[in-house]
Specification:
- The chain is α/β, with parallel strands linked by helices.
- The protein has two domains: about 160 residues, Spore Coat Polysaccharide Biosynthesis Protein SpsA, Chain A; about 120 residues, no CATH class.
- It is about 45% helix and about 20% strand.
- The chain is built from ten helices and twelve strands.
- Strands 1, 2, 3, 4, 5, 6, 7, 8, 11 and 12 form a ten-stranded mixed beta sheet that branches. A two-stranded antiparallel sheet has the order 9-10.
- The longest helix has about 30 residues.
- It is globular.
């Protein structure tokens, strides 16, 4: 079974070697799609045998779907991996063992993904590991076209793997804050787009049950709570009700920053963008460009 790993990169010299070495046990080919790295990402990837393509970046979904269009027709399976992620030995062995014997109607595989923060895997808070769909038959899956919270969806049956995928970013906390500031702008834009154009409901099987359940809760409960206050409620639930405090200081920092600060920032940007639109006759394009800093075709 020919398996191709796709990795999207921008200045990932700190991570790319680790990611590529973690897939060596099961990957037949790796395609790195770089969007203009100024460090040694490209050279390091090529040195370890990856094929490197370059393409201007708009958002993750479109970059990944472009990458799929570049793959050769003899590809059987595709694995979507972030540069700062590591495939555990257990997951690598499971992929190598199970893939050749899967029934033809199984077109996608989910796997548990855990996040490490300040050097410690987050084990509490009710969120991790999250089962995500990252491995699928070529031609039967793609990424949703979303600015944020995009997921791979497939047309067919999905089964689950047990080995973990670890998201372990080695950059500084300042880098993390800058990244999530950009993420907050994208998420605010996606919320505004969903409000304007009712997003179709993706079938549970197409993206995995846990991911679908999370999105349902977000649409039916979280988004109906008042701006700002819902960030407090979310943090309280994760840190106190679900035991996030059990991860010590890294848990406190993670749930405060990712579960409260980031969610509050999304709401604040959403509030600012809506005020701007109210003054500009509902011009979402202007709000996206002038408030959120994103050029979009609306």
């Amino acid at each position: 079974m020919a398996l191709t790993v796709v990795i999207l990169t921008l200045n990932e010299a700190r991570h790319i070697e680790r990611a590529l070495r973690s897939i060596a046990r099961f990957a037949d080919r790796c395609v790195v799609v770089d969007s203009g790295s100024a460090d040694d990402t490209v050279a390091l990837a090529r040195a370890l045998g990856a094929e490197v393509l370059t393409h201007p970046f708009v958002n993750q979904a479109r970059q990944f779907n472009w990458a799929l269009e570049q793959l050769s027709s003899d590809t059987d399976w595709v694995f979507r991996l972030d540069a700062d992620e590591v495939v555990s030995d257990a997951l690598a062995a499971e992929i190598a063992a199970r893939l050749p014997d899967l029934p033809d109607d199984v077109v996608g595989l989910t796997m548990p993904r855990r996040i490490a923060f300040l050097g410690r895997p987050i084990r509490h808070g009710g969120l991790f590991p999250v089962n995500i769909l990252r491995l699928f038959r070529f031609g039967q899956g793609s990424s949703e076209d979303r600015w944020m919270d995009e997921h791979i969806t497939v047309d067919g049956r999905v089964e689950a793997l047990q080995g973990e995928l670890l998201d372990d970013n080695l950059n500084s906390l300042g880098w993390w804050v800058d990244k999530h500031n950009r993420y907050a702008s994208r998420e605010a834009l996606q919320i505004l787009l969903d409000e304007r154009h009712t997003a179709p409901v993706t079938a549970t099987a197409a993206m995995g049950a846990q991911t679908a359940a999370k999105r349902w809760i977000n649409r039916k409960l979280y988004t109906r709570l008042p701006l700002g206050w819902r960030a407090f409620a979310y943090f309280f639930y994760r840190y106190l009700v679900r035991g996030g405090f059990r991860d010590g200081y890294p848990g406190l920092a993670f749930h405060t920053l990712q579960g409260f600060w980031y969610r509050f920032l999304v709401d604040a940007k959403l509030y600012e963008a809506r005020r701007h639109m109210a003054r500009r006759d509902g011009d979402l394009g202007a709000a996206s460009r002038e408030v959120l800093g994103i050029e979009t075709e609306v």
